[in-house]
Structure formats: C-alpha cells, structure tokens
Amino acid sequence: MFKLKNPSPLVSPIGLVVLFYSLSLAQNYFKHVHQGLKIGPFTLHLSFQIVIPALLLVIAFLRN
Questions:
Q1: Residue 37 carries which DSSP code?
Q2: Is this model's pTM higher than 0.90 or not?
Q3: Which of 12, 15, 26, 37 is close enough to 31 for a disulfide, judged by CB 3.0 to 4.6 Å?
Q4: 3-class DSSP state for residue 41?
C-alpha cells in the first residue's frame, strides 16, 4: 500500500492508533457488547449490505 520495502517503521504508530481507538470505543465489556448487538447492526450492516451496494449499482447504471 505504501510501497515500502521494510514496513517495520509503521508497526508501532499504527498499533498505537488502533490501541487508542479501541479503548475509546467502549469503556467496558458490557458497553462493547451492547454496541455490537444493538447499535452495530443498524449502522454498519445496513450501510455495508444495502446502502453501499445500492449506490454502486446506481453508479454502474449511470455510467453506461
């Protein structure tokens, strides 16, 4: 992706970003489960399974 011969300089910064992002998403396990079962299906699954494919289909038909 970055066309680097040695990707090791990127491991620590990306790891820190992932660590802080994961800690900021949910304060504890129960909130994490709540977000995954109640909030995630409507925000992620709906958009990735319906909205984005529909937009791609419309774009594909408009380009032809």
A1: I
A2: no
A3: 26
A4: helix
